[in-house]
Amino acid sequence: MVNLACDCNAIAWSIDERIPRTGIRYLCHCDDCQAFAHFIGRANRVLDANGGTDAYQLPASRLMFSRGLDNLSCVRMTNGRLIRWYCSHCNTPVANTYDTSKLSFLSVPLCALPAEQRDEALGPSSGHVWTKFGHGDLSRVKQVSIPAMLWRMASRIAAARISGDYLNNPFFDPVACKPICMPRHLTFAERSELDRKVHAVASA
Question: What pTM, to 2 d.p., does this model score?
Answer without folding.
Answer: 0.94
